[in-house]
Design a protein that fits this description.
heterodimer; A: 229 residues; alpha+beta; 2 domains; 46% helix; elongated; B: 167 residues; Rna Polymerase Sigma Factor, Chain: A; Arc Repressor Mutant, subunit A
Amino acid sequence: MIDCLECRRRILATPRDNDAAVATHVADCAACATYRGEVIRLDLQLERVVRVPVPECLPARIIMRQASQPKLPASWAWSIALAASLIIAILIGREVSEDADSAHWTRQVVTYVQNTELGHEASIAPGEVDHVLQAIGVTLDPAVGPVSAVEPCVIDRRNGAHLVIDLEDGPVTLLILPDNDTPHDITFTTTNGSGIIAPCPRGSIAVLAATREQADTARQRIERSITFI
Amino acid sequence: MWDKKSRFTVLVEAFNADLYRYAIWLTGDKHVAEDLVQETFTRAWRSLDSLRDERAAKSWLITTLRRENARRFARKSLDQVAIDVDTLEAVEAMENSPEARALGRALDNLSPDYREPLLLQIIGGFSVNEIATEMQLTAGAVTTRLFRARQKLRAVLDDEPDSEAMP
């Protein structure tokens, strides 16, 4: 037979366990029976409180991220990269102007985006984004959205920045390339989604999202947030 | 026999919400929580073949998430942070009673030593022994933490001093 102290200790630890000793005690002790009822009520309330809203698209994002993971051993990576580049080149050939420089440039950007996956940090250290962007003479208004990855990048021997921004409808890859000019918008398709390379006041940006529509929306949002110093 | 993708999809659909909720109360930040959940499932995909019993899936995923969270702290030397205002507001929007609001804040204010076993019990549905295994504690230590956690929450709700004295 347990006393009130032990009974309440057990109730607080595991309120809904079918503990025979607790059951026997509360059958004879009205105060502990009331106490048990109160703790169970607290638990039910706790269950409701912890049920914070879950982003609707979370399962889709998880599955999309898994699908974008490398599936073959590293020894295959170069073959795959080469094949991807060829496919991209064909896709680009269908979608963009015949301008040779633009096509070359686009291939460089798309190949980079296709083959470079940033280490997805759980959180970016304060100032890390500013630090990377300052090096290429750019600022980005934090209102654009949470940046989940950022790294300097070099494309066609010119410096840029590679970011992943988590927008409401999914993650968007952004390349800021202040030293790479593009004369007009160039759209492209990769196995990871659709993208656009767009001219900026200085250089260009490349935006890759799951769909063309998302890329266009993200591009407008980024253009409003970016400043070339 | 399901293929790997089907197994994975079922796991994602079954457990993403619980993992996200656990992560958000663990980290206090919805973006970090989502990253943690995504990274957890990425790792789960890589080692899915090692999951022999689907009944152990939830525990397996929680263990992975906790390890990922520990790595996050190891990388960044992060301080514990309070749950973000948006999340608390979302809780408050769902739970209009002043008591529920107070409970949300009291849970947020619990030290991680007390909050985590309670979350494993409430969200994960884990037994004392399962929590003990997960947290590498004795069953007695888990019982004490659960007991103290609820005692502290009751003290806040009752607006009583946080005392262990029994009537």
